[in-house]
Amino acid sequence: MRVVIAEDGLIVREGVAGMLRRFGHDVVAAVGDADALRAAVVEHRPDVVVTDVRMPPGFSDEGLQAAIALRAADPTLPVLVLSQYVEQTYASELLDAGPGAGVGYLLKDRIGEVADFVEALESVAAGRTVVDPEVVRQLVGRRRDPLHRLTAREREVLTLMAEGRSNAAVARALVVTEAAVAKHIGNLLLKLDLPPAIDDHRRVRAVLAYLRA
Fold first, then answer.
1. Which pLDDT value is given to residue 154?
2. pLDDT tens-digit profile of 40-93?
3. What angle do CA 4, 5, 9 make, to 5 degrees?
4. Contact between residue 62 and residue 33 where contact means Cβ atoms under 8 Å apart
5. How much of the chain, in percent, has pLDDT values that exceed 90?
6. In three state form, how does the secondary structure of the chain look?
């Protein structure tokens, strides 16, 4: 993959770039602010963008707003956003930016889990939605009704769905059959008044949209 990285911290920026290169990916630009991110995307037309939320000059949400603007200009551009903390407003704003290519929201701690981080980036580049498990837990915890209708197993399946996992990946994680996963998904979607969908990206967006309501 051709990757553009935007992160104001030099050590983190170079660390992520080096890690991705070791996995065979081409880091075409590694920049430190939102304006440089926009310029790098225009110049290099990357396969995926990785960006921090907070960057110069204001250190508020410049990276996130740049990501949303880039997606608005090119809905086919996959974007993975990194954040220091769970900030539900930022996660919701990114996921509500409209349909398009893959999108992800991860905590920076996830970078330390190298294989998981690279897998998440590759999933986003492939068109899927990936949300940090801690963000999912907080979103689920914020919305108790009608989630109380779900069984413990259905909650586990919902969390894994919202992380962007396929039915096969959910089955492996829970050590059950894919048929059992499909049944759980059908049941929980009915309980949440959500129509079933075969597309992973649409399914995750539908679930997260409901949890944020």
1. 86
2. 999 999 999 999 988 888 888 888 889 888 988 898 999 999 988 766 666 667
3. 160
4. yes
5. 38
6. CEEEEECCCHHHHHHHHHHHHHCCCEEEEEECCHHHHHHHHHHHCCCEEEEECCCCCCCCCHHHHHHHHHHHHCCCCCEEEEECCCCHHHHHHHHCCCCCCCEEEEEHHHHHCHHHHHHHHHHHHCCCEEECHHHHHHHHHHCCCCHHHCCHHHHHHHHHHHCCCCHHHHHHHHCCCHHHHHHHHHHHHHHCCCCCCCCHHHHHHHHHHHHHC
Residue 149 pLDDT > 90: no
Q: What is the pLDDT of residue 111?
A: 84
Q: What phi-psi label fits residue 24: left (phi over 0), alpha (psi between -120 and 50 degrees) or beta?
A: left
Half-sphere exposure of 7 (CA within 13 A, CB side): 22
